[in-house]
Amino acid sequence: MTATDRGPARGTAGGRRRTQNASMADVARVAGVSSQTVSRVANGFPGVNEETRGRVLAAMKELGYRPNSAARALKRGDFRTIGVITFTLATTGNVRTLEAIATSAAHEGYAVTLLPVAVPTQDEVRGAFSRLGELAVDAVIVIMEVHLLDSARLSLPPHVKVVVADSDAGDRYAVVDTDQAGGTRDAVRHLLDLGHDTVWHLAGPDESYAAQRRTDAWRTALEEAGRTPPPLVRGDWSAESGYRAGLELAGHPDCTAVFAANDQMALGLLRALNERGRRVPEDVSVIGFDDIPESGSFLPPLTTVHQDFAEVGRRCVESALRQVRESEEERGTTLVPTRLVVRESTGPVPRG
Fold first, then answer.
1. What pLDDT, in 10s, does the model give residues 39-52?
2. Which one-letter DSSP state was computed for residue 300?
3. Strand partners, 267
4. Which long-range contacts (CB under 8 A, 24 or more apart) does 18-25 make?
5. Which of 62, 157, 288, 309 has the fewest Cβ atoms surrounding its Cβ within 10 A?
6. Is the dihedral of CA 160, 162, 167, 171 positive or negative?
7. Which pLDDT score, from 0 to 100, does residue 247 have?
8. How far apart are CA 105 and CA 310, in angstroms?
9. What pTM value is reported for the model?
10. CA nearest 280: which of 305, 255, 262?
């Protein structure tokens, strides 16, 4: 989009007068080239020799000309921006996934527009997509931890390039998720291999897809091993809820191993067990999930399931841009592997 010359402004060191709202034609006149050449330089197209490109860039600087990137994007239909809708930034997984998305997008030359949604409802999500449309994005990544896409309650707008992180909607959208079930099985089997009769579970909130996946996998792993799952204890991902659950679990003498659905709850659990005189791992073994950077500094250092959030974010961006470039929608789930990180919070079943 070109702008008209709206009059003189400050003079420049070279004596030429800087133009307010300088147009492409102004730059072309100063550089001694055509407007088409200025356009090619402004858009970063090849085919302009370095001497000419240098004159055009110098003229832009001298006149204070700034290309209208929004107008260029509208003309090309390419905004170089990915929208991200998320329902909460209170959890470690969401924050680290968002960080990875932003990093991967920047590596591809794309910006990220974040749109938090306070309440995960059909109307709120529709409104979020509408606002992102006004902000002009090429694709949308939805970080959706809650059970919303798993039911008929929510459908995303058609013909929008969408990738969903942490959901169970792979038959309708492109989904990228950590292998929740595989990581949980590894944790439960590790504790059973240490000789524990069973494994108690400190679960995440009921509305969380990830929490449900981990709970289901915990129960299945015990049943496949011929063990009866103990009563479920539930938290809300916070260390405080882990502490409250830990006070309850400490009162069960037969509780010798606990799988916590995330590291923050495991932290609160460790505190509660310590206060109740239950030593870790001599009396009770504890495993977390996430492998947050601080987990190796817990007392004792926490055995946990490592999630590769950087890879989740990278694959989300990769899928989104592939849909944009190929103009085709993707469906199906991509699982990013986990790995068990064994530290000092797990040990053999107590003697006697």
1. 778 766 667 888 99
2. S
3. none
4. 18/62, 18/63, 18/64, 19/63, 19/64, 20/64, 22/63, 22/64, 22/65, 23/65, 24/65
5. 157
6. positive
7. 97
8. 12
9. 0.75
10. 255
Out of 94-103, 125-134, 232-241, which region has the weakest mean confidence (pLDDT)? 125-134
- Give the C-alpha separation, 181 to 165, whole Å: 16
Strand ranges for the chain from DSSP E: 8-11, 17-19, 81-86, 111-116, 139-143, 162-165, 174-178, 200-203, 233-234, 257-260, 285-290, 303-306, 332-336, 339-341
Q: Give the position of tokens 């080239």.
A: 33
Q: 283-312, pLDDT tens digit by residue?
A: 999 999 999 999 999 999 999 999 999 999
Q: How many angstroms separate the CA atoms of 338 and 344, rounded?
A: 19
Q: Are strands 8-11 and 17-19 parallel, antiparallel or unpaired?
A: antiparallel
Q: What is the largest CA-CA distance in the chain?
A: 92
Contact partners, residue 145, CB within 8 Å, separation at least 6: 87, 88, 91, 93, 94, 166, 167, 208, 209, 210
| Each residue's pLDDT tens digit, 245-287 | 999 999 999 999 999 999 999 999 999 999 999 999 999 999 9
Task: For 208-255, give the DSSP string.
Answer: BHHHHHHHHHHHHHHHHTT-PPPPPEE--SSHHHHHHHHHHHTT-TT-
User: Collapsing DSSP states into helix, strand and coil, what is residue 6?
Assistant: coil
